[in-house]
């Protein structure tokens, strides 16, 4: 993934520096408002990363020790880690093969009386079935946190992914479609929840540092609860505001490149590329391909691509196979393990050319002929 950063972002960051206000301030507030509008949420709360956003989302829902939170193992490890941050127990659920996402059935298979919440991931930008999962978790009386780290610009049922979520967390890491370097956002519709999230990200203060400095009178702040320093800087937000303007064009370009990959890969047996689900569209933050009867093993394919100058990556990781989760009771996650073992992510970014795609697919075609 190569982030699309240009002179506009450089100028915006420089203007923030010259303004003298580089910590969380007016640019962060504007970025929050514009991002929330873009994704169809009532309120945005900027944070230092999607990981810290997931942590705050669980705090907001009151999840803690003794609770279980269902998560997909097929996700970056931060999804599971956030559960441990609040002292709860992560419970790994399997995913469906086509989208890499949790379903009502895979969640229900591991749900127990201790289940307090689910973190469902819009995996690689492919939206999960928002209607089905929101209804099921409502019926079960458990919380749903939407890990939308990769989902800016994706849609579900004609709405932006995350629209209508109780709480969703987003990432602006350089591997995402839009970036602020590091940084994230939490979106909610409830104004009281947004206010608490703002306190939680800023040490629990009842008045923000920006409001304190803007006041013409002395402000004696109070600290209402034990909280965190999860703030975003105005420099990051300045870059993010420029990036928001680029998002529609970037998503359109990625979908065009993905469509061309689909055409080129169609004649190669043993390769199954990720596609839009029936209920939505993906931003193709990741373009993964499942090896299904391909004559060459995944790691050999990656090695051959690397030897010929192509930077492909392994498929999405499985957290339950990592040493950090060796203490978790063994679970049966056959689809997860197949996806992490037998898929790879092909290059897809704004600088990718048709010649690049022809070259990449040409190597895959050669390997298929072995």
Automatic annotation (TrEMBL):
Keywords: Aminotransferase, Pyridoxal phosphate, Transferase
Cofactor requirements of the protein: pyridoxal 5'-phosphate
GO MF, one annotated term: transaminase activity
Name of the molecule in the record: DegT/DnrJ/EryC1/StrS family aminotransferase
Family: Belongs to the DegT/DnrJ/EryC1 family.
Originating species: Paractinoplanes rhizophilus
Keyword Transferase: yes
Domain of life according to the entry: Bacteria
